[in-house]
Structures are given as structure tokens and as C-alpha cells.
UniProtKB/TrEMBL annotation:
GO terms for biological process: antibiotic biosynthetic process; fatty acid biosynthetic process; lysine biosynthetic process via aminoadipic acid. It holds the Pfam family AASDHPPT_N. Its cofactor is Mg(2+). It comes from the Bacteria. This is 4-phosphopantetheinyl transferase. Residues 18-102 form the 4'-phosphopantetheinyl transferase N-terminal domain. NCBIfam families: pantethn_trn (TIGR00556). Residues 105-190 form the 4'-phosphopantetheinyl transferase domain. One of its GO terms (molecular function) is holo-[acyl-carrier-protein] synthase activity. InterPro entries: 4-PPantetheinyl_Trfase_dom, 4-PPantetheinyl_Trfase_dom_sf, AASDHPPT_N, P-Pant_transferase_sf, Ppantetheine-prot_Trfase_dom. Transmembrane segments: none annotated. Belongs to the P-Pant transferase superfamily. Gsp/Sfp/HetI/AcpT family.
């Protein structure tokens, strides 16, 4: 079963709570968090890791100190468990989102903001760029971020990072609100067994998920920092 969770990140976290959370992640993560110059970036990175630990402890009934990350050659993390546990994390602005499943998955969230819409010709395929330009002017920026998060969620699903250019594949939205993905280097053949779903988490954000099954949850579980205060008791045992 696919699970998607979202955590709202406030502009300030009580230092005592931050320290409690910080002690629950491994040394490598602590070093990465300490390297951030932005406090909000450190919050997002920490909460993303805590979210995964909470999921694993709940699902597999193991203690937090038994959780160890592994990384593929593209630096995508996973945790060796039985049954398998795959996950992906994304964060932007005030949100951290997490997707988990028994197979590879991907997720991406982006805050919608003003951009020069012409940059789409650099990142998207010719067809996607033309579709974007055919939209009403007021719809172009939201469409850009919808397409961006769809494509990023697929790249993260595959787990090969920047080795897959955004313009190497085409995503189309069908009349039935489904999505098709095509490889532009292989006669525009459909890429099979890839499914997408978009969610409205916040009107100022675009959020897309990608998985090998269409069985996405109807809703996202949403948590606040106050929710974490009680949840982390599971990790501190």
C-alpha cells in the first residue's frame, strides 16, 4: 500500500524539540544538517528523516537505532527490510512530503512562484513547451510547475538522479485525467507500468507522485510540528 504524508514546517521550532529530533538521526545526517546555512533548510532535512524513521518503526516494529540507510550509485537512499521498504522525500517552502511503498516510488513538491515561462524550452520537450504556450496566460505558471513536479517525481522514482534529463521523456495528460509517459529517444514509445497522481495539498504548491501501480491513496496524511511531539516518543524508546 502506498502511503503519502505531509509535514507542515513552521518558521521556528522550539530549540528543545529540535534537539530531541536531532538526536534521533544518525551522525551522517547530523553532519549534513549542520552544514545548512538556512535554518528552514535544516528543519526540512531533519523532519524528512524523522518521518521515514517513524514509518519504519511503526510498520516493522523495530527500534530507531536499528535503522540503517543504504544508497544506490546515484545516491538514492533505501533501507534494507523485509518486506521491502522504498521511500522518497521532497520539500519546498513550508512543506516536507514523504511517499513509501514496497516498490520504488517518487514524489516532488514545488512552491509555485513567478518565473520566466520561456525557460520551459530548456527543460521540457518541444511538445510540452508548445502545450504550455497554448494555455491561457494565467494558467501557464501553474501548468509549468505541475509538469515540473510530474517529471521530477518520475526521475526520483527511477532513482538515477540527474543522469535522466527532464527533456528526455514526454508526459501527456489524457482526457480521463490520466497520464502517459513516452521516451522521445525510442520512437515516442510509451513507458509502461508508470503511474502518476497529483494532489492539492496547498494552493500555493504543486505536488506529484509516481509509482509502479495506480493504487495511490485518496488523501494525504497531514501532520504539524505539534503532532511530532507525541509521535517521536516511539523513536525515543
Amino acid at each position: 500500500m502506498i502511503k503519502i504524508q505531509a509535514f507542515y514546517i513552521p518558521s521556528h521550532i522550539n530549540p528543545y524539540l529540535f534537539e530531541r529530533l536531532f538526536k534521533l538521526v544518525d551522525l551522517d545526517k547530523q553532519k549534513k544538517i549542520n552544514q545548512f546555512t538556512s535554518v528552514k533548510d535544516s528543519y526540512r532535512s531533519l523532519i524528512g528523516d524523522i518521518a521515514i524513521r517513524l514509518l519504519v518503526c511503526q510498520k516493522y516494529h523495530i527500534s530507531n537505532n536499528k535503522i540503517f540507510y543504504q544508497y544506490n550509485k546515484y545516491n538514492k537512499p533505501n533501507i534494507a527490510l523485509n518486506p521491502p521498504f522504498f521511500f522518497n522525500i521532497s520539500h519546498s517552502g513550508d512543506w516536507v512530503v514523504v511517499i513509501s511503498h514496497t516498490s520504488e516510488v517518487g514524489i516532488d513538491i514545488e512552491k509555485i512562484q513567478d518565473i520566466d515561462i520561456n525557460i520551459s524550452s530548456k527543460y521540457f520537450t518541444y511538445f510540452e513547451h508548445q502545450n504550455l504556450l497554448s494555455c491561457k496566460e494565467e494558467d501557464r505558471i501553474p501548468y509549468f510547475f505541475d509538469l515540473w513536479t510530474l517529471k521530477e517525481s518520475y526521475i526520483k522514482f527511477v532513482g538515477k538522479g540527474l543522469s535522466i534529463p527532464l527533456n528526455s521523456f514526454l508526459i501527456e495528460k489524457t482526457c480521463s485525467e490520466q497520464f502517459k509517459i513516452r521516451n522521445i529517444h525510442e520512437n515516442f514509445d510509451n513507458i509502461e507500468n508508470v503511474f502518476f497522481k497529483q494532489y492539492i495539498l496547498d494552493s500555493n504548491y504543486s505536488l506529484s507522485a509516481c509509482a509502479p501501480t495506480p493504487n495511490f491513496p485518496k488523501d494525504i496524511e497531514i501532520f504539524t510540528i505539534d503532532d511530532l511531539k507525541s509521535l517521536i516518543l516511539r523513536l525515543e524508546k
